[in-house]
Predict the structure.
Amino acid sequence: MDAVTLALEIAVQDPAGVRIAREVGAERVELTQGLALGGLTPSPATLELALAEADTDGPEVHVLVRPRAGGFHYDRDELALIERDVRFAVSAGAAGVVIGCLDADGRLDLDAMTRLVDASGGAAVTLHRAIDVTADPVATMHAARELGLDRILTSGGASAAIDGIDVLRRLVEEAGRGIQIMAGSGVDAASVAEIVATGVDAVHFSAKRTVSESTGVRMGSAADGVGGYEVTDRDAAFAVRAALGL
């Protein structure tokens, strides 16, 4: 992939992340919260402020719509929630949504995905890493292409994209021009060049660091009152860009 045509997408959780993405020259942000849980749907206020930060010359804001951690097989109530969040994100001004639903057998849920594509009202739709827990990512990619999705975010069926190189390369070959393939998960300055060499259309990375805090009182699953939160790290984001020679 020519570095000139390669798109950069950064997963961010707040307006500060959008500002860093603008500085880095990212084409898109995936707006989310709870990255430590794999990403969850951001709040309406977070979306509002992120869109204001992106304004007219910043990165496109694409909203992850995922109501909970865990798997991607959703019941009726959860699907209704996802559909409403998709409609809300697009009506608020998001350029696209990032979604993924699997059926009880672990295959792409075509009925659910069709419903959500319809709810997007023509905005860009990305299939997220639900593809990476399906038995055959290539077959899933073909199904997503038939549904008219714009792109797929994938690690090639591995926990980290650098370990899914062979599947990423096959996805690129099979996709042709029908759907974009975007590599993500664990992408950093050390791995990005090798990942890009597969021919993917874009790379997705979070460039995050953890801010640790000790409250002395246990909150949720934070052991012994030691917790923290993640933020976008400007230096890490620019390091990925530099590794690509941009």
